[in-house]
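During the practical work, I selected for study one protein's amino acid sequence and its backbone structure tokens, as given directly below:
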Amino acid sequence: MTALFALTSRGLEAICAGEMARRGLAVGEIGYRRVHAQTHAQGDLRPLLTLSIADDLFLEISRWSGIGHTRAALETLRELAEQLPLRPALALCAQLRPIDRRPTFSVTANFVGKRNYSSDEIKSALAAGIEASSGWVYTADDGEAALNVRIFIEHTEALVGVRLAATPLHRRSYKQAQRPGSLKPTVAAALLEVLALQPGERLLDACCGAGTILIEAARRGALALGGDSDADAVAATLANAENAGVVVSVERWDARSLPLADSSVDCIACNLPWDRQVAIAGDEAAFYTQVCAEMERVLLPGGRIALLTNRPELLTFERLVCRGQVEISLFGQRPVISVYAEIEGNTL
């Protein structure tokens, strides 16, 4: 058995846990932005690097208690870091990519509660302990490090892990072209997860931006189509799709008047404009009413819709009912994922 923990956006913990369970992991504790799990048996961990909702994935290597808030805790952290069982984690990571026996490493530190020391001082304490005991070489630049050691301190408890992948999972290599308000890939994947999107289903994103939802859908085997009123967004979507090696259908359009037939799509996922990073022309409430009407028109009977917005009160449909909502943290805001369907289905 290998102990792991995933990091995700606030509010997506349960959705992330569901994906991990589907991938065969035994999910355990779920905390703030964290999901703990174990593999059922020793084996290839490579498939876990394709988890779509986790921002990052770590091998859990230690838990410490009694971490105080005074500066004396820094020496305690250094001493504990000298005792970390790093070799098994190095061996597991080395199965996935070439790593030197004396690798470079970075340290990431987060804590909850007031302390008389900083995150940078925590990093320095752990780095000193690890270098002293293992011979690993510390670098402050995570981009240059072969391995990342992460510590969370919550009150007096600490959790320590080593990143399984070379880089955080949320950094999709395909996403080179950006647009204002462009959606984080892991949040896009969460929208598709709550829809239970299936291969072969036709997925629409009426306000596609840089195409993140469409690309994540195509990577799941869906037929992805979408559009945007901004010609640069359409170009960004096509560029990112090419980087991802997937095919999406995208064109410039007005989401309030979609050039699609009635009852022509299985699912809709959309990051609606919030009128912050992406301006809405005209009255915001009227825009939402018109877009919702068009979505309902093109949706097949029995279809599902997942929408992300910080104005969920403006969502309105005639025959669809809200099956669940969850508030998340994104761009310093707290938007809501709302799922709509005609019939009983999965709820958030």
The mean pLDDT is 94. The first strand starts at residue 3 and ends at 7. The chain is about 25% helix and 30% strand. The first helix runs from residue 13 to 22.
